[in-house]
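Weekly puzzle thread! Below is a chain. First person to post its structure in token form gets bragging rights.
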Amino acid sequence: MCNYDALMFTMMRRAIFGMGIAGLMAIVLRIFGGDGSAPQSGGWREIDPASLGDLSRQHE
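Winning reply:
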């Protein structure tokens, strides 16, 4: 039973260490990862509702 407790402690220690490393990487990428401006291409675009036609008839 004592061996099981030691294995669980080791697993928890490794998990906490891994989460700490992931957190540090997230902070570094957040600070140094980009210039902070929004993307200039892609994303949402306006559409003309008249070009959609009658959508209620498409599912019949």
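Puzzle host: Confirmed. Bonus trivia for everyone else. The CA atoms of residues 49 and 55 lie 10 Å apart.
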